[in-house]
Amino acid sequence: MEKETYKKKLLLHACCATCVGYPYDFLSNDFNVTIFYYNPNIYPKDEYLKRLEDVKKFCEIKKINLIIGEYNNKDWENFISGFESEPEGGKRCERCFMFRLRKTAKIAKINNFDYFTSTMSVSPHKNFLTLNKIGKELENEIQISYLESNFKKQDGYKKTIEISKKFNFYRQNYCGCKYSIKKLNKE
Questions:
Q1: Could you give the angle at the alpha carbon of 94 between the alpha carbons of 147 and 92, nearest 5°?
Q2: 34-62: per-residue pLDDT in tens?
Q3: Terminal Cα-to-Cα distance of the chain (whole angstroms)
Q4: What is the pLDDT of residues 105-137, one digit of tens each?
Q5: Per the confidence metrics, is the pTM higher than 0.90?
């Protein structure tokens, strides 16, 4: 009789179904993955719900456990206050990463996960070095291991887009917050 291998538990923060496809497939070989949808930055709420529906659909298809965090855009706005005018990819985004990853780390700790990480590094618009730096800071602060990632490697972004097309997931044209909509409207 073969000995069953124990997989460590990982809480994977997901911003949308498009970004979760490849990271989930990659991580599920080595980890027992649960998806955490926590995105109070997304504006308007209809956009948040549209993205959530596809994350739910992905989790149902793949039979993945899903935890849905509270949507409280006001708390997020308070956290990034003073950084509203920052350029996309700047200090406002760093604070947004910190806000969402801190909650992910806390949920992982409370629920006895071994690791936490995020799908955000699959995006060509997100700096994986910044995400990993914040993740490691939170690892020390909250005492839960952060799994460093750069899901763009090995055509990760291309693969996640292919998975998104396969399942006909909604693909948004802005990061999520109202400030990224403003940037989009200026282009």
A1: 160
A2: 999 999 999 999 999 999 999 999 999 99
A3: 61
A4: 999 999 999 999 999 999 998 999 999 999 999
A5: yes
For residues 56 and 167, the answer to whether their CB atoms sit within 8 Å is no
Strand segments (E) across the chain? 8-14, 31-37, 65-68, 115-118, 145-146
Q: Which amino acid is at 131?
A: L
How far apart, in whole angstroms, are the C-alpha atoms of residue 151 and residue 128? 8
Predicted confidence at residue 10, as pLDDT, reads: 98
- Cα–Cα distance measured from residue 16 to residue 56, given in angstroms and rounded to the nearest whole number: 10
Q: How many CB atoms lie within 10 A of CB 83?
A: 15
| Domains of the chain as residue ranges with CATH | 8-186 (3.40.50.620)
d(CA 142, CA 106): 7
Coil, helix or strand for 92? helix
Give 127's Cβ-side CA count (13 Å radius). Answer: 12
Which pair of tokens denotes residue 22?
């490849």
Cα 88–chain centre separation: 17
Residue that the structure tokens 């080595």 belong to: 30
Structure token digits, residue 79: 């956290």
Per DSSP, 82 falls in state T
